[in-house]
Amino acid sequence: MEVLHFVLLSFVLLISVSNGMASGRYKRAPFCKTRIDLAFVIDSSRSISINDFQKQIQFVNDIVDFLDVGSDKTRVAAVSFSNYLFPQFGFNDYTTKKDVLTAINGIKHSKGGATRTYLALEHTHEHIFAPGNGERPDVVDVVVILTDGVTNPGSYDRFSGSQGKKQTQIEAARIKDRGAYIFAIGVGRGVNADELNGISSDPDERFTIQVTGFSELDSDKVKQMLLKRACVEIETTPAPTPPPTTTPDNKNPECGKLLADIFFVLDQSSSLRTEGNFNKTLNFVTEVIDYLHVSPTETQVGALKFSNNPEIQFHLTDYTDKQDVATAVSRIKWKGGNTYLDKALRMLRTEGLNKAYGSREDVPQIAVIITDGVSTNPYATRLELKQLHSLNYILFAIGVGPNRNPAELARIANDPANVFEVESLDGLQAIRESLVTRICAKGVKETKNP
User: What is the CATH number for 170?
Assistant: First the structure.
């Protein structure tokens, strides 16, 4: 079957070349009948000339033109990047080949002065392949990344060059860990083979492609190579095993008995750097909520975010169903700013866990505070904490990243066991079940012994 596909591809490419000579454009029939969810990650940094960028776009156009595109066939998405992230379109945006090709041809050359590859890969994992955005669990996920250089954060975030390169590998690993394949195409002499091989799936000789220049992308050899590997060989290459899923209530059966009012206090300061990083916090919160039984007679959930000023996102009584709460969390937007934790704690006391806004008597009042840095006004924060502790609120403190302050985290929590520290936002997953176990123990204990 692979040989037949290969012969058919060669024949289709030959016909395309003949048509191209006659008409100036290729007229293609679909070659790839394999149903895939295909995401293109396209470098648009200024090291690529305008002419070369157009050759890159034409290459993407040509590859898609060989696919059988449709809502129940192959779906296509794209993102471009340079100094910033530029989302283009997702799997749900276009359902016909014509519309997809039009969208590809509309991708602009940003000419950015940096190559923040990790941002595009993070977006691919967090948004393009996120549940509900058109990715299908029964279809193979494929990513094709094109770049003419190495990761270079420039002066656009706090990453050094080596840290940026490491972050690119981390984000690529997250995509592969979910069971997706990554093809890395490096163009020109500025690329680094080790970085490309680290980004791509294994084996490198199958998933890494290097060419000398953008003109070479127009060769039938390169197109044939990618199409054959993506449409034929991928079917015989074992995919990475995705992380196992857990059944929350089996992990923590006592959570079904939990009676509590829980408020999440979320740091959205500028030190998070990107909305994608903030979304990792949101994903963590929704996964914690998934362990709870949300209803007016069991657990009530509210949330606020803070930076320069705090903002209530929803009160305890706004949503009475777990799915509605999770949806509300997913809609919270990142803003940036300073870390005025004191203002957030004041709002938690006066408007969050407050009887006037739905909190209940004789029910444990629990706050989960997630922050990646030290409070902008530590003195005011201490005063607010003193009031919260006097009200017997149960406070959990989660410090994330290298700028967390262990001393302040210890002051926030009224029990040393309620302090959690992780090295990065990705590390939140490692403490999820421990946090839930602690929350459930506090709630059940307080409910049984008021």
Answer: 3.40.50.410
